[in-house]
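#struct-pred
JK: can someone run the complex with glycylglycylglycine? inputs below
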Amino acid sequence: MKNYSIALLPGDGIGSEVSAEAVKVVEAAGKCHGFKIEWVEYPFGAAHYNKTGEILPASALDEMGKCDAMLLGAVGDPSVKPGVLERGILLTLRFHFDQYINLRPARSFESVPCPVSLKDGVTIDSVVVRENTEDFYMGIGAVSEDGSFNKPFEAKRGLYNLLGNLEADFGDRFPAALQIGALTRPGIERVTRYAFDLAKKRGENKVTLASKANAVPFLYGFLDDETKRIAKEYPNIELKIQNVDAMCYQLARTPAAYGVILCPNLFGDIVSDLLSALTGGLGLGAGGNIGDKLSMFEPVHGSAPDIAGTGKANPIAAILCAAMMLDHIGESAGAKAVEAAVSSYLAGDASEKPIELGGNANAQTVGDSVARYIS
Ligand code: GGG
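RT: done, structure tokens with the ligand placed:
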């Protein structure tokens, strides 16, 4: 019997509902496949912040770093100013543990209707490889009441510590905002190699890069050039560079035409929501924040406060995150069992499907059903 220690951060909104079901299914897989999980649960999120003023203490980061992986529900709540929890918890975790890949697979299920028609037998099987530490997620910026800026900044990453000063003046006196993005050669290199290695592993001969060098030439022109340079290391895999707007258009028309999609941080967030919708709904989109230290598995969806507590949350994304996590820690048989259980469950009685997919099953019932299919 192998034992693992997994940090569990249910977070806000539907986060606790969906992560409870993921835990249930992992426990069932552990019983069948001979592993045991010690869950180390953390309270961080809106309720804890509103009660204590604490966001994510350094002591918790130290403790989490000793775990084998982390499962995260969702972060963000209307009771807290946007960005406080997202930056203070989610992005802090990604940056602190240098989780430089955000891997977001998107697969259609035969039994789940897609909003666009697919030819018979054609399925969506693509994966977004999103750079997870740079681009417009650097957190460098300011809002000014009088259009002038003079503010030092620091952005600590695994690869570097960026120091600088944001200094600008619009001249006229009006409120304004400035935010800057950054991309670096080592940041692009590691995510590009990851994407190309993944394409090779999947037996594919193409990686498509979502870019926008025509309108944002400094950042994305650099991205294109650096990606082309790395792509030369993979002579059997073509690099196709596509403007992200054209990619969204083509994804909506021919979603099955894509395999590995390489994205800078912001486009990756957007494109993976679109892909989740194309495969049937946000409640199906799993993801992993992967790095060489602690990796963290987190659904594509957010905390969805509008449906929290209603039972409408679809826990399949969180359950598929748990499968990714099991694969990551080396429990690949357990991971396959969870994926197979999800497919079997979704192929079953339509009325027992999640509410998001037109059935009557609340989050708890979905979790119970998937757990029953584990073998
Ligand atoms: N639109 C779904 C959603 O809110 N997902 C969570 C999210 O956007 N997280 C921020 C991120 O992944 O960067």
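RT: quick notes.
Residues 269, 273, 301-302 surround glycylglycylglycine (CB under 6 Å).
Residues 136-181 form one domain.
JK: thanks, will look after standup
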